[in-house]
């Protein structure tokens, strides 16, 4: 439940500040000690710590008593039931400044009320030492996140946008948790479609004169035109099939044409990545091609590969169709490439966690080749052990008509157009509010970009990724409700409160004291402190929506505090300004992890 970090990962921070771990983690440590004293005969019991369902009882609770009772009863234990076990767990808790008071509820739940002084102290410490000290501790050092991964010569579509946005966030959360992340763009740059593309390129440019960006700039049209030739002209089809053979044999002319096509595609993707602020390293399917024979040989030696209807396949228990790894014509496919890539990532790149972000439609594919890898012993059979492979599936993007998201002019929505539209709508809204008279053109543009792109990302990330979601500019650009616009404005408002006080916040951080006297101050403070465990949960379970939910609730807690507690000009001004600053710091970290650029004024 609480993965223990390796000692080395505690000291990887540059400023040498110790990572304190989440609140839940710190409480777990105390209860671990108490459990050891309470039931010494049950050595490896993990503390079960959770936030209290009902805040009237406390902030957190320890739920171990019942489980322990069923383990020890009838074994000559001194305890008479779960309740006395809970009592003993409570009594054996080591003294700690974290805890204000404890109580027992029901069959031995230990409720904990945290000390508000400790909450305040922890926040003060974070303000001084930096939010990096709140990073979660994860049990892995290196991970691969395989995301975005469009297919060459086809336009990136809105499904790839989801993969790009979700994958980037997961990578960011892992990086924040001191995991080294290999951000892999597994582009579809290999396969039989290249025969037809190359042949069509030769046909259009018979002189061998290289096509420039302009000529095949619209790759989707190029792809369609060549597909049409392929389907309608048997001669062309035959030449295309021969072209694949020449390409795979390494014929220079064909390799060159192939890399030209890839290069033009790549330029198109990079424009999108640049706009989204997403960094990726391309290792496409072609990269793993040389590793396929070796990987299949390993599987073969273990007797996993069988002959079936002329193809070479791996049968997977519980699945009707086998995983084809060599096609009937002797060629490799998506699955053979993925097996080789997995082998490479585990053995050459030494990744301990490999995460694939694609639509849920590919779940079967991943399940099958993960199972094959488990049978081969490349991955442990148990899902909670490392190295681990995880498929992060996501649902469809729907239009407001409830159908798959499309625009009239193209079959799939072009990403660049979508981002342009978000930005220009935001810019129009800012102009309507008169910002063009207050701000420079550059400020206007930068803000419109931050809000527009942020809105597109947040609208995607806030949903449970496995469900479909409806793409609606009206909804995502609304400045009320759970949207990036609302959250970015909330952050800007906090910054303006601090500015209006005319206090030097850096100075206050050093000298000011923080106390959480008002109940709304305490609630906000506790919420801030829960940041680390939310990030930990979001990246352990691969659900970015948990972080969005946290951020939205945080801004609501802030609003309640700000409504009920005067900040500027009050007797508690210093303390409350520090609480404002801490909220802004945590909000900014959330934005950062979600790939959203914060704005400081509105
Ligand atoms: N290119 C694939 C697609 O567009 C996604 C690749 C995902 N990564 C992988 N290792 N299979 O559907």
How far is the N terminus from the C terminus?
Answer: 42 Å
Largest sheet: 5 strands, parallel
By secondary-structure content and strand pairing, the structural class works out as alpha/beta
Give helix % range: 40-55%
User: What proportion strand?
Assistant: 5-15%
Number of helices: 23
- Report low-confidence residues grouped into runs of 5 or more: 1-15
Query: In total, how many beta strands?
Result: 14
Query: What's the overall geometry?
Result: flat
Query: What compounds sit in this structure?
Result: arginine
Strand order of the largest sheet: 7-6-5-11-12
Overall mean pLDDT:
91
Report Rg: 28 Å
Structure described in brief:
With 602 residues, this protein is α/β, with parallel strands linked by helices. The N terminus is likely disordered.
Characterise the protein shown here.
By secondary structure, this protein is α/β, with parallel strands linked by helices. It has helices at 23-38, 65-72, 82-91, 116-129, 158-176, 193-204, 219-232, 234-249, 252-276, 285-288, 292-301, 334-347, 363-375, 415-432, 435-438, 441-461, 473-476, 484-501, 505-511, 519-529, 531-540, 545-564, 573-594, and strands at residues 49-51, 60-62, 99-105, 109-114, 142-146, 180-185, 281-282, 305-308, 311-314, 323-326, 353-359, 388-394, 397-398, 469-470. It has a five-stranded parallel sheet with strand order 7-6-5-11-12, sandwiched between helices. Strands 1-2-4-3 form a four-stranded antiparallel sheet. Helix 6 (193-204) packs across helix 8, helix 20 (519-529) runs antiparallel to helix 22 (545-564) and helix 20 (519-529) packs parallel to helix 23. The longest helix has 25 residues, at 252-276. Mean pLDDT is 91; it is low at 1-15. It binds arginine. Residues 146, 149-151, 186, 188, 338, 341, 356, 358 line the site of arginine. The site of arginine has 10 residues, from helix 12 and strand 11.
């Amino acid at each position: 439940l609480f993965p223990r970090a390796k000692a080395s990962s505690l000291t990887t921070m540059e400023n040498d500040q110790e990572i304190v771990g989440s609140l839940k983690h710190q409480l777990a440590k105390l209860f671990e000690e108490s459990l050891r004293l309470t039931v010494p005969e049950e050595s490896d019991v993990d503390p079960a710590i959770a936030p209290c369902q009902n805040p009237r009882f406390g902030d957190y609770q320890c739920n171990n008593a019942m489980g322990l009772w069923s383990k020890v009863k009838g074994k000559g234990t001194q305890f008479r039931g779960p309740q006395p076990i809970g009592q003993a767990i409570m009594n054996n808790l080591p003294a700690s400044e974290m805890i204000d008071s404890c109580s027992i509820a029901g069959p031995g739940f230990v409720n904990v009320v945290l000390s508000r002084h400790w909450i305040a102290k922890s926040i003060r410490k974070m303000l001084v030492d930096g939010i990096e000290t709140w990073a979660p501790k994860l049990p892995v050092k290196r991970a691969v996140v395989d995301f975005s991964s469009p297919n060459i010569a086809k336009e990136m579509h809105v499904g790839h946008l989801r993969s790009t946005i979700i994958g980037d966030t997961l990578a960011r959360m892992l990086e924040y948790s001191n995991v080294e992340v290999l951000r892999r763009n597994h582009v579809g740059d290999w396969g039989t479609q290249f025969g037809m593309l190359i042949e069509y390129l030769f046909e259009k440019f018979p002189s061998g004169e290289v096509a420039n960006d302009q000529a095949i700039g619209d790759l989707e049209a190029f792809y369609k035109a060549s597909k049409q030739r392929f389907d309608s002209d048997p001669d062309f089809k035959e030449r295309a099939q021969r072209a694949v053979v020449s390409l795979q044999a390494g014929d220079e002319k064909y390799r060159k044409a192939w890399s030209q096509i890839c290069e033009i595609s790549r330029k198109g993707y990079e424009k999108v990545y640049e706009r989204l602020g997403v960094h990726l390293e391309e290792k496409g399917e072609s990269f793993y091609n040389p590793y396929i024979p070796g990987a299949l040989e390993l599987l073969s030696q273990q007797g996993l590969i069988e002959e079936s209807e002329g193809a070479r396949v791996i049968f997977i228990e519980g699945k009707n169709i086998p995983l084809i790894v060599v096609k009937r014509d002797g060629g490799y496919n998506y699955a053979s490439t993925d097996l080789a890539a997995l082998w490479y990532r585990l053995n050459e790149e030494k990744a301990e966690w490999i995460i694939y972000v694609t639509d849920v439609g590919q779940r079967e594919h991943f399940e099958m080749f993960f199972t094959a890898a488990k049978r081969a012993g490349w991955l442990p059979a148990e899902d909670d052990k490392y190295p681990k492979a995880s498929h992060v599936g996501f649902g469809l993007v729907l239009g407001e008509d409830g159908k798959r998201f499309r625009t009239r002019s193209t079959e799939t929505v072009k990403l660049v157009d979508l981002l342009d539209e978000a930005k220009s709508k935001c810019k129009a809204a800012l102009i309507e509010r008169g910002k063009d008279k207050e701000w420079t053109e550059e400020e206007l543009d930068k803000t419109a970009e931050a809000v527009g792109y942020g809105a597109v990302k947040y609208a995607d990330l806030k949903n449970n990724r496995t469900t479909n979601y409806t793409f609606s500019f009206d909804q995502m650009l609304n400045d009320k409700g759970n949207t990036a616009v609302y959250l970015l404005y909330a952050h800007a408002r906090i910054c303006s409160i601090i500015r209006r006080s005319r206090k030097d916040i850096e100075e206050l951080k050093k000298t000011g004291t923080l106390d959480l006297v008002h109940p709304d101050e305490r609630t906000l403070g506790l919420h801030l402190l829960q940041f680390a465990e939310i990030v930990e949960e979001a990246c352990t379970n691969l659900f970015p929506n948990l972080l969005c939910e946290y951020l939205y609730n945080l801004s609501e807690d802030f609003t309640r505090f700000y409504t009920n507690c005067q900040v500027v000009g009050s007797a508690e001004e210093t303390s409350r300004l520090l609480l404002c600053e801490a909220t802004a710091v945590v909000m900014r970290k959330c934005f950062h992890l979600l790939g959203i650029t914060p704005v400081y004024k509105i």
